[in-house]
Inverse folding.
């Protein structure tokens, strides 16, 4: 029996999830729902999908067992609550909830109803990051002392852009959209920081949200971390997330394509020195491919979890941890108001000062 | 189709195995001149087709080719549209409707004209819109030979996934009637696409898909692909034959050349040595 699934939100991620889920042999897309009549009209005319502009109508008309929620982040808490009240398994896009108290109460609600709640942190399904987790958790790097987590890419490149991603009250901004991935990977591979400090969170182009975030992460073990995210960086073709981890026995650097490991002393099957592993060796095959294996793998994992064959790798619980770190960063940034605004001059006045100093020195000599 | 097609991933910082290599390549190929130099080497190696995306930088290459007709009289282009990141980034920045406005000719004035003409956006037919977008992408190839025009895999596979298969027909019809070209479809999901194209009556289609001995990026597995090659009537173009370096070039090319039906092989390379060596291997195993 296929899992009767509804899909809510037909933005960039929603359309991608729709194609992937609709191709999955154990999912039946029973209905799709979005507020945009143009997209719905196009789908209604050209596919067999049942299209709804109203969520209650979809919930009452289709006997759903599961729902994929890919709406703007602000709406997640309310919609997930509604879905759980209808006893639906939920796959929700990241970040989970803007208010961590909602994340925790929804996690409890999901557990009490024995439902599956998954959040779309797709990097958890990339072979290189999974391998990094294995290596760190099996102590290949020894005692971890520092983690650098970076996320860069081209989303906001000029002072316009009108989508929800650039609106604070909708849950837009670089922290929720980009940094959340890096934060979740830190949690996945190593541990959740219990404090943050020195946060800088500010705009480069956007009127309403931050375009860059930097923060120091402090872990219960005493290890430290640095988070850096900038979604106005078009030197990258698409989003690029990289973690570099230093421990007493070496260093590991990992991105979506490649894992580079340097060990001081041999550990397990790894000799001392450099090791490089590529995604080509670390990727599990999927039944359908769009944009990357990890997007299909996470939907397949959702299916396996519903069937009781797997424990959720990106659960409401783990996503709640990411939400709590995000919230600490938001609160820490509020205490650092000196870092809010960038100077409007393109280049600091350093060169002028230098020449002034030089000319003063020359005139003093003569 | 030509047996050997020269691809362009290496020019645009696409490397499936390493971000560092991808960045080094995109720095190396930061201007059109450096791309043209490598394209000239490919032509010296007797490669006559450049299979390229509709990245704006390709517009500079096609300008150069138009200005030097004698030098490039044998060169054909197989455009692959659209350059997906242009669309994905526009959609993330502007939302779906404004993204279309940005991507249509004259920065959306045509869309404005359609709306002003009394046709509401909701009633706008997808076929007409798709044709406008295809024409916008093809603009950079005017006056050049483009006997095959490909639909990029992100779009092919998205349409395949949501079940909008009639769009394949729209694409094939438009490139045939307007550009006298054959439609090609790039996909990462060969077995499923074959079924969908048959369903909309596209006979013996040109399909470019990942085919490599390692089974890398071949959903359904190597055996599903090998069966598809045996059982379906289509004209395969093999891409990612080297599986991003996971297999040795000799082994990789011997495997692909030994498969039934494979009509063309597309590969990208940046150095004279790699271009000549890959071409030599394909020729050797194809004879």
């Amino acid at each position: 029996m296929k899992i009767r699934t509804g899909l809510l939100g037909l933005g960039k991620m929603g359309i991608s999830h729709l194609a992937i889920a609709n191709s999955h042999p154990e999912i039946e897309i029973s209905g799709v729902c979005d507020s945009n009549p143009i997209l719905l009209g196009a789908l209604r005319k050209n596919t067999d999908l049942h299209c709804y502009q109203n969520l209650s109508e979809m919930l009452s008309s289709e006997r759903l067992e599961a729902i994929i929620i890919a709406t703007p982040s602000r709406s997640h808490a309310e919609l997930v609550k509604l879905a759980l009240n209808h006893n639906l398994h939920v796959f929700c896009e990241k970040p989970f909830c803007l208010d961590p108290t909602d994340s925790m109460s929804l996690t409890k609600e999901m557990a009490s109803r024995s439902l599956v709640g998954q959040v779309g942190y797709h990097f958890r399904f990339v072979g290189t990051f999974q391998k990094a987790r294995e290596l760190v958790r099996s102590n290949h790097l020894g005692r971890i002392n520092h983690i650098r987590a970076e996320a860069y890419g081209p989303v906001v490149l000029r002072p316009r852009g009108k989508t929800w991603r650039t609106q604070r009250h909708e849950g837009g901004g670089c922290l929720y959209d980009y940094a959340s991935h890096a934060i979740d990977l830190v949690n996945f591979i190593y541990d959740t920081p219990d404090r943050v400090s020195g946060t800088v969170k500010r705009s480069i182009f956007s009127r309403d949200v931050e375009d860059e975030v930097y923060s120091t992460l402090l872990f219960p073990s005493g290890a430290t971390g640095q988070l850096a995210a900038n979604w106005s960086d078009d030197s990258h073709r698409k989003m690029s997330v990289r973690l570099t981890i230093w421990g007493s026995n070496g260093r590991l650097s990992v991105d979506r394509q490649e894992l580079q490991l340097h060990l001081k002393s041999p550990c397990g099957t790894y000799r001392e020195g450099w090791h490089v592993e590529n995604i080509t060796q670390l990727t599990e095959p999927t039944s359908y491919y769009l944009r990357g294996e990890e997007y299909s793998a996470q939907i397949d994992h959702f299916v396996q979890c519903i069937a009781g064959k797997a424990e959720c790798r990106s659960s409401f619980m783990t996503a709640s941890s990411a939400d709590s770190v995000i919230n600490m960063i938001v609160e820490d940034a509020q205490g650092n108001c000196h870092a809010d605004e960038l100077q409007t001059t393109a280049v600091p006045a350093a060169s002028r000062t230098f020449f002034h100093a030089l000319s003063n020195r020359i005139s003093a000599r003569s | 189709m030509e047996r050997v097609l020269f691809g362009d991933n290496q020019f645009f910082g696409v490397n499936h195995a390493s971000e560092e290599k991808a960045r080094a390549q995109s720095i190396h190929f930061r201007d059109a001149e450096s791309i043209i130099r490598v394209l000239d080497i490919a032509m010296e190696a007797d490669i006559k087709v450049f299979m390229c995306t509709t990245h704006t930088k390709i517009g500079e290459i096609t300008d150069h080719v138009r200005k030097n007709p004698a030098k490039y009289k044998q060169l054909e282009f197989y455009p692959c549209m659209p350059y997906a990141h242009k669309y994905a980034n526009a959609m993330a920045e502007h939302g779906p409707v404004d993204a279309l406005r940005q991507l249509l000719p004259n920065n959306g004035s045509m869309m404005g004209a359609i709306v002003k003409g009394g046709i509401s956006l909701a009633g706008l037919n997808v076929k007409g819109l798709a044709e406008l977008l295809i024409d916008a992408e093809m603009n950079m190839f005017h006056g050049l030979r483009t006997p095959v025009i490909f639909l990029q895999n992100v779009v092919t596979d998205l349409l395949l996934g949501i079940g909008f298969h009639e769009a394949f027909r729209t694409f094939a019809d438009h490139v045939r009637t307007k550009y006298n070209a054959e439609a090609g479809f790039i996909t990462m999901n060969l077995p499923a696409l074959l079924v969908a194209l048959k369903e909309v009556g596209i006979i013996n289609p040109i399909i470019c898909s990942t085919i490599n001995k390692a089974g890398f990026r071949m959903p359904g597995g190597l055996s599903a692909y090998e069966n598809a090659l045996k059982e379906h009537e289509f004209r395969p173009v093999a891409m990612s034959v080297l599986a991003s370096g996971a297999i040795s070039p000799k082994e990789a090319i011997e495997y692909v050349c030994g498969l039934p039906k494979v009509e063309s092989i597309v590969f990208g390379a940046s150095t004279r040595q790699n271009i000549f060596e890959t071409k030599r291997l394909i020729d050797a195993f194809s004879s």
About this structure: Residues 123-287 of chain A form a domain with the Dihydrodipicolinate Reductase; domain 2 fold (CATH 3.30.360.10). Chain A has a mean pLDDT of 92. The first helix of chain A runs from residue 12 to 23. Residues 84 and 125 of chain A are 25 Å apart (CA to CA).
